[in-house]
Automatic annotation (TrEMBL):
Name of the protein in question: Ferredoxin CarAc
Positions of the Rieske domain: 4-99
Record keywords, A-Z: 2Fe-2S, Iron, Iron-sulfur, Metal-binding
Gene3D superfamilies linked to this entry: Rieske [2Fe-2S] iron-sulphur domain
Gene that encodes the chain: carAc
InterPro entries listed in its UniProt record: Rieske_2Fe-2S, Rieske_2Fe-2S_sf
Length: 101
């Protein structure tokens, strides 16, 4: 695994997300309640990006068809059991955000 600098802390506003493309992987980075989360960016339903979704606490709502995912665990919270997106550890170093891939 490798730590990669992906953004600065000022790049993401509270309660929102940003999609990143890191080595061909689409990852959504979220800031919620002063904590950063990194998760696979694509909803399992129809591959819509979760990054512009509505964030409340540890839950993001896919903007296309309103599926809900826990941004800490990657778990889909409705519709089907056992669906889970990959999550990635996040570290803040000075004002830089790093993700461990």
């Amino acid at each position: 695994m490798t730590w990669i600098r992906v953004a600065s802390t000022g790049d993401i506003k509270e309660g929102s997300g940003k999609e990143l493309n890191i080595n061909g992987q689409r990852i959504a980075l979220f800031l919620s309640k002063n904590r950063y989360y990194a998760i696979e960016a694509l909803c399992r339903h129809q591959d819509g990006s979760l990054a512009p979704g509505k964030v409340e606490g540890e839950v993001v709502e896919c903007p296309l068809h309103f599926w809900h995912y826990n941004i800490r665990t990657g778990e889909l919270l409705d519709y089907m059991e056992g669906v889970q997106l990959n999550t990635y550890p996040v570290e803040i170093r000075n004002n830089d955000i790093y993700i461990n891939l």
